[in-house]
Design brief:
4-stranded antiparallel β-sheet
């Protein structure tokens, strides 16, 4: 496992993200490593139910899909990570997908939504580590990196 674990954005990255061009569409690359067992806090209805990290993450997806759609977002790509060919093996991921948002503001609106803030507990309970990379979508060229 990597030395540092990342579940939520840090302040510096969030400030840079908020400073990106406000009206341009974005793609968010999500790389997720799941916990073996979900870690819900005491008082949460799923605490002590012995759910897997995948169960918790799927609950996150189910409960927030309508919020994603409401802000104009959608999942545009999903794949199952098989092996890290180049890079540390500790950076192996369970889930990989790209979500598209019409703007950075749409993403901000989603994460600030009061309903989303309740349901994100499923994500927090299920995720052991993650990466979220904001990208500006562009048409691919003919060669790598173009």
């Amino acid at each position: 496992m990597s030395e540092s674990v990342f579940i939520d954005p840090d302040r510096n990255a969030w400030a840079i993200f908020r400073g990106l061009p406000p009206g341009a569409p974005i793609h968010m690359l999500n790389l997720v490593r799941l916990r073996d067992r979900a870690d819900y806090p005491e008082g949460h209805e799923d605490h002590g139910r012995n759910l897997s990290g995948l169960d918790a993450y799927r609950a996150y997806g189910r409960t927030t899909a309508h919020i994603l759609a409401r802000v104009g977002g959608r999942q545009v790509w999903s794949g199952r990570p098989e092996v890290t060919v180049t890079g540390p093996q500790s950076e192996a991921w369970d889930l990989a997908f790209i979500a598209e948002y019409p703007s950075t503001q749409a993403f901000i609106d989603m994460v600030r939504d009061p309903e989303y803030r309740v349901f994100v507990a499923h994500r927090t309970a299920g995720v052991a580590d993650s990466r979220l990379v904001c990208m500006s979508p562009q048409a691919p060229g003919e060669g790598f990196g173009e």
